[in-house]
Amino acid sequence: MAMNAYRLPRVIVPRPAVLSAIIMITVAAVGCSSSSDTTDPGTIAQNIDIEDGSDELTPDQEVPSNDTQLPGGSTDTLIPANLVLSPLPSPPLTPAPAEDSEPVRAERNTTTAEAYFAVRDPQIIPADILDDLTDADFEAGPLPAVISTPADVDPATNTPPFFVDLDNVEVFAGQQLSVLFDPEDADGGLPGMFPGNLPIGASFDDNRNGTKSLTWRPLEPDVGIHEFTVTAVDPAVPLYRSTHTIRIKVSLPSDLSTIVNLPPSVNNIRPHTVQVDDPVVAYIKVGDPNGTIPTLNILNPPPGATLTPHPHEEAITILHFVPDAPQIITLDLQAVDSVDPSLTGEQSVTIEVLPSSDFIRPGARLRQLASARDLLFGYAVLQSYYERPDGAIYTQIAGEEFNIVSTENSLKFDFLNPMPGKFRWAATDNLVQLAKAQRQTVHGHTLVWHRQLPPWVKRSALADRELIMREFIDRVLGRYAADVPLWDVVNESLEEDGTLRNSVWFEGMGASYIDIAFRQARESAPDATLIYNDYDIAFAGPKSDGMLALMQQLKDAGTPLDGVGFQLHLFADFDDVDEVIATFQRIADMDLDIYITELDISIADGQTEAQQADLYEQILSACLDQPRCKAFQAWGYTDMYSWRSNFNPLFLDDRYQVKPAYLSLQKRLGEN
Ligand code: G3I
User: Fold this and answer.
1) Which position among 256, 285, 387, 414 has the lowest Cβ density within 10 Å, counted as fewest Cβ atoms?
2) Residue 519 domain-assigned?
3) What is the mean pLDDT of residues 257-275?
């Protein structure tokens, strides 16, 4: 069924004298059945949930309640045995790294790196050219709805929630846009709804009547075409969803004075704790909602401070100084509007300077204790740590405590290769240099994932997906395999119900993408250790069953697979460690190694640091007691930098002070 033929009248607002014009667009939505010509992916491959980028990671403990899980268990035998890869083409399908992608040496006083010469990418790839929607894209109308149909749902008897007659909208910069979304479901009930890729400054407000509104007052920097995605969730089956994307065209009014001039600002810089005599850098960014570049004033620069313009970003100034005594430094920063100097924005930054004695941890260093047990013990490193005020103490402690380091974000596709031929190698180049200086193994994360993909990959032709994936793998391993011996080749291929997740890669190659990825990795890096990595697979359930079935299929197919990475993003009251132990043993029985790859233990309301400490110790014991467990890696190590910092999930606090969990790890590592 084609999308509705007629379209809402495009809303063109006459240029108002007063910018209070509100564009009200009401989208009446009635349920309508999807059918094959909406290419319902549910008809392509059963149990497939289109990845809409809105699915948040489900930590190991927060599995949806049983009544939402689809029949889990093993995936179909979808992986042919002993596949032989075709040679990579020459010339390649996708442009190789351009010469101007090679990092250059960073300017003095712009990083805290002192153990090696830090490098930087030679250019910044502006975010706006990453998403190059054109007028033609806008004129083409909204994208077809994407229906995610779980296996136990029959569209003939349960129609998906739907927004019909959704259309693209136009608005002038400076005016307020309001778009009402009112999903309905022909089978009754009130669908849920959530947004994706909300424009900066926009809000998606609940009207408390079943509808929600996108509200946004775009300004000059927003001129262009934006995609906004909203997903309706079936009232009865939450994994049954319809995802819609509209395009919003923001145009400049002919009279720019109709756009209100808003005050500038200094980007927020969190309080930091640093060590006396360590270099401190602060990347101070100013901004103006109207797109101009304000002037930065530092009202009280520390003694000996230097200011260096950012090599690419006019809005960033790099402050460097070396505090020589314990103190609390408050930097008072001010941004002054480049058009109207009476418009300013202020921001203060607190830097706590502690003596080195305050960072001394009791007892033996964790890496010494772990190395004595032949265990890789490590953390995931913050991207561009050397451009943070506390980068020096952060790396000092990391070097003292860990013998392996994972790349948290710097090797992900969207960061590394944001545009064809453009690569951002510097962050990982610097990490590799740091790891060498600190005698640490580097764990590469991750070559193939359904998330954090650049627009050019997401929009690629299905037929190109295999070579895009393989050429990326080959280039990354070609650059790093000599220094990075361990790789998460494929990350998070499974849904909660144990079936394969749909993704850019699955769409292009079916389940074989997993086997193909490992085979390419083996070809590109014959000596590397190659593992499959996922979450929610360590404790009993359909996803763990699906993982075990998938690993067996891969082994049966002759896939060059060396081990399984268990992410283990837990909460402190997790109490299924016995199931973790049993799953580890089932993997060992498959002659595969076990890696704990992303452990963090969040403390939710009502949970305690003591529970956290005890669980860290239990998980470490589960690894130490399993001969095939090769690595115990946390996803960071200080609560200052964690993807879940609001749950304080790590074992040093945000001032680098020891928590009970540090002591419990140290005790367990020191025991026989
Ligand atoms: O680099 C951009 C920056 O330029 C921009 O200004 C900023 C604000 O938009 O975003 C920055 O990118 C962020 C990136 O982390 C680097 O900081 C992304 O928005 C943000 O989504 C991304 O979050 C990461 C997340 O994976 C998604 O990739 C987390 O830091 C990272 O800890 C988390 O790690 C994942 C593992 O890779 C896989 N297992 C689950 C784990 C937790 O989600």
Assistant:
1) 256
2) yes
3) 95
Query: For ligand 1, which residues put their CB under 6 angstroms from it?
Result: 57, 383, 408-409, 412, 451-452, 491, 567, 598, 643
CA 440 to chain centre: 24
pLDDT band at 89 (very low <50, low <70, confident <90, very high): very high
Q: Is 339 helix (H, G, I), strand (E, B) or coil?
A: coil
Which of 268, 409, 570 gets mutated to test ligand 1 (max ligand atoms within 8 A of its CB)? 409
pLDDT in tens, 148-175: 888 789 989 999 998 877 889 999 999 9
Q: How far apart are CA 596 and CA 576, in angstroms?
A: 16
Q: How far is the CA of 543 from the centre of ligand 1 (A)?
A: 24
What local confidence, expressed as pLDDT, does residue 537 receive? Answer: 98
Domain assignment of residue 579, yes or no = yes
Domain containing 219 equals 135-258
Residue of minimum CA distance from atom 39 in ligand 1: 567
CA-closest residue to ligand 1 atom 37: 408
Does residue 447 sit in the same domain as residue 579? yes
Q: Quick one: DSSP state of residue 107?
A: P
Cβ distance 407 to 446 under 8 Å? no
**What's residue 14's pLDDT?**
37
Comparing 67-76, 144-153, 273-282, 349-358, which segment has the lowest mean pLDDT?
67-76
Q: Mind listing the pLDDT tens digit for each residue in 237-251?
A: 998 999 999 999 999
CA of 76 to the centre of ligand 1 (A): 32
CATH of the domain at 245: 2.60.40.10
What CATH number does the domain containing 527 carry?
3.20.20.80
CA nearest ligand 1 atom 15, residue: 409
Nearest to 499 by CA among 21, 76, 33, 183: 76
| Residue after which a domain boundary falls, among 238, 258, 278 | 258
Predicted local confidence at residue 573, as pLDDT: 97
Q: Which of 401, 466, 492, 496 is catalytic?
A: 492
**244 and 383 co-located in one domain:** no
Q: Which of 449, 492, 635, 643 to mutate to test the pocket of ligand 1 (most atoms within 8 A of CB)?
A: 643
Check if 598 is active-site: yes
Q: Tell which of 258, 289, 309 closes a domain.
A: 258
DSSP code at position 187 = T
Active-site hit among 227, 401, 598, 617:
598
Q: CA-CA-CA-CA torsion for 137, 138, 140, 144, nearest 10 degrees?
A: 90
The pTM of the full predicted model, rounded to 2 decimals, is: 0.83
DSSP per-residue codes, 512-533: HHHHHHHHHHHHH-TTSEEEEE
Where residue 28 falls among pLDDT bands split at 50, 70, 90?
very low
Question: Does the residue 380 lie in any domain?
Answer: yes
* Mean pLDDT rounded to a whole number for the chain: 88
Q: Please check whether residue 218 lies inside any domain of the structure.
A: yes
